[in-house]
Amino acid sequence: MILKNQVAIVTGASRGIGRAIVLKLASLGVHVAFNYAKNKDAAGSLEKEVKKMGVQCQGACVDIKDFNEVKKWIDGVKDHFGQIDILINNAGIINDKALMLMSPEDWQQVIDTNLNGMFNAARACIITFLKQKSGQIINISSVSGLIGLPRQTNYAASKGAMNAFTKSLAKETAGYGIRVNAIAPGFIETDMLSEFKEEQKKQILDMVPLGRLGTPEDVAGCVEFLLSKHAQYITGQIIQIDGGLAIR
Ligand code: NAP
Is 155 marked active-site? Predict the structure, then answer.
């Protein structure tokens, strides 16, 4: 599998896991387009860093929740680069609350970003992938979607649905040379985790058999594997990168 000069789209990449994935792809010679919600400075500095690595990079402020805007963005990426080979659906948020305190807006915002956002980007890429009879989609899900976590009914529901989407689309498109997989991270050290109190972080660490939090690079390494020649017979899988947290 020669990744050099392929073109990837990574959603939600100004920070955290998405950023590490963009840097990993760039190190493999892949040209990258990514979007973000509001963090223009972080996106600009990532774009600069990636260009220095000798590949093309385009960051765009596009709300992943907006079907039409996402389509316009991805159509523009295809026009600019002439191809799209890889889609990484990474943009995601949490809004943790007990169900009794969760408003319809708290529910909807998480579902719209994590689940509908993935649909929006996949829908915008899929005809290109079907026509060229190749393409790889990796959805960044969560162990929360596999085992459930308290105060995350909205988030766990969005991620569980992403896992089901992954399996269905893998079956639907395998005959066209398209592979669709998901990565389910455990607790990864990013801004998302900064919303947890120190006490909660200690409790989390006690739950992780490998005894440490994950890094964005742990997740990016799995992306590299899934795109590599070693993973060409893998599709429809949900791969846990969680230090053993959700061993079942
Ligand atoms: P993060 O550090 O909070 O970064 C989130 C990224 O998504 C940012 O680039 C943000 O852009 C972007 N984003 C958020 N809402 C968006 C929107 N409406 N439109 C476009 N972009 C949007 O998060 P992370 O920890 O790296 O998480 C990345 C993915 O991994 C998520 O899907 C998350 O659910 C999943 N995950 C994370 C963990 C963890 O422990 N960190 C565990 C399991 C799964 P701005 O910078 O502009 O806000």
Answer: yes
Question: Do the beta carbons of residue 184 and residue 245 sit within 8 Å?
Answer: no
pTM of the full predicted structure? 0.98
- The domain ranges of the chain are 7-238
Burial environment of residue 150 by CB neighbours within 10 A (0 to 12, 13 to 18, 19 or more): exposed
**Domain boundaries 7-238, corresponding CATH code:** 3.40.50.720
Marked catalytic residue, from 36, 155, 176, 233 = 155
Nearest CA to ligand 1 atom 44: 142
Render pLDDT for 127-174 as a digit per residue (tens, 0 to 9). 999 999 999 999 999 999 999 999 999 999 999 999 999 999 999 999
Split at pLDDT 50, 70, 90, the class of 196 is confident
Q: Give 131 Cα–ligand 1 centroid separation in angstroms.
A: 30
CB-based contacts of 38: which residues, under 8 Å, 6+ apart? Answer: 61
Amino acid found at 223:
V
Q: State whether the beta carbon of 185 lies less than 6 angstroms from ligand 1.
A: yes
**Beta carbon of 222 within 6 Å of any ligand 1 atom:** no
Distance, in Å, from the CA atom of 67 to the CA atom of 32, rounded to the nearest integer, reads 21
Q: 114 C-alpha to center of ligand 1: Å?
A: 9
